[in-house]
Design goal:
With 299 residues, this protein is α+β, with helices and mostly antiparallel strands. The protein folds into 3 domains: 82 residues, Rossmann fold, CATH 3.40.50; 76 residues, Luciferase, Domain 3 (Luciferase, domain 3, Roll), CATH 2.30.38.10; 91 residues, ANL, C-terminal domain (GMP Synthetase, Chain A, domain 3). It is 19% helix and 33% strand. Strands 1, 2, 3, 4, 5, 6, 7, 10, 11 and 12 form a 10-stranded mixed β-sheet that branches. Helix 2 crosses helix 3 and helix 3 crosses helix 4. It is flat. About 4% of the residues have low confidence. This is AMP-dependent synthetase/ligase domain-containing protein. It holds the Pfam family AMP-binding.
Length: 299
């Protein structure tokens, strides 16, 4: 709607098809488009396969949603669309899509500087749009000094509730006008929102909270890791134990924890991945205690 109000036009295709989308960008001189990681991956893969290098010269703005773009996808986007500013949005359908926006010069995953206390972690998803209110709601389970809590939002952009049995049910999602996004995070002094993960996926280990998404993002930055999933399994001592299932990239060798490393350079092992987590300053209790190698069809 904003494009139409600004005097622009939309280029429509029946459904997403990477060939149709790539051709439409070139033929119609598309200047901006919205994507998700899977679509960006398809566009980059198609461009490499067809040896296309000039399809994105007209594109000046790309908005990503539905999940974070990896380093590989961001670097690929800059090469295929060299004139484009790439932004990422965080939000949900129940709140009219986007809540916060951030420019992706490079993904932000680091310890925030000049923040009170010693707590850090998460992915910076930017600042709220001008009409968006966001606050962090603390529940009874947060007994530490951590600023992490439930991400809540309020405003005309939020839904009234879910339509259930011919009536509106807002008891579980909307309280006192605040919509619970179902995600967990915190806000820094400059107003940036830091996303930790989903409330339902939280792992409780040794009294500490671990959000799988944060650990997965760290592990996915290792050059030998293709895909990764982090889960918690029942443990008699810790309550839950953090473990990870990983799929390695072609050309890399998996070395069992009990085997000796040959030092060939392209090796992945539980010890190597644990060291990678520590180098990335992941808190000790968040580092997976064991790793399982996924098969070729691991999703």
């Amino acid at each position: 709607m904003a494009i139409l109000m600004a005097g622009g036009c939309h280029v429509l295709i029946p459904k997403f098809d990477v060939k149709l989308a790539s051709n439409a960008i070139r033929q119609h001189g598309v200047t901006s488009f919205i994507t998700v990681p899977a679509i960006m991956a398809d566009l980059l893969s198609y461009a490499r396969k067809e040896m296309i290098s000039d399809s994105g010269m007209t594109v000046t703005k790309i908005l990503n949603g539905g999940g974070g773009l990896s380093d590989e996808l961001i670097n690929g986007a800059y090469k295929l669309f060299p004139r484009a500013a790439v932004f990422s949005a965080y939000g949900m359908t129940e709140a009219c899509s986007s809540l916060t926006f951030t420019a992706l010069n490079k993904p932000t995953l680091q310890e925030p500087k000049n923040q009170p206390g010693t707590y850090s972690g998460g992915v910076c998803v930017g600042k709220p749009a001008p009409h968006i209110e966001i606050q962090i709601g603390m529940d009874d389970s947060n007994t530490s000094s951590s600023p992490t809590g439930n991400i809540l939002t309020r405003g005309l952009h939020t839904m009234v509730g879910y339509w259930v049995n011919n009536k509106v049910d807002s008891s579980e999602s909307v309280r006192n006008g605040w919509l619970d996004t179902g995600d967990t995070g915190w806000m820094d002094q400059t107003g940036n929102l830091w996303l930790m993960g989903q409330q339902k996926g939280r792992i409780k280990t040794g009294g500490e909270n671990v959000y799988p998404e944060e650990v997965e993002l760290i592990l996915s930055q290792h050059p030998g890791v293709a895909k990764v999933v982090v889960i918690g399994i029942t443990d008699s001592r810790l309550g839950e134990k953090v473990i990870s299932c990983v799929s390695i990239r072609d050309g890399w060798k998996w070395v069992d924890a009990r085997a000796n490393h040959k030092g060939e350079g392209k090796e992945v092992s539980p010890h190597i991945l644990q060291d990678h987590c520590r180098i990335k300053n992941l808190s000790r209790f968040k580092v997976p205690r064991s790793f399982i190698r996924g098969g070729d069809h691991f999703q």
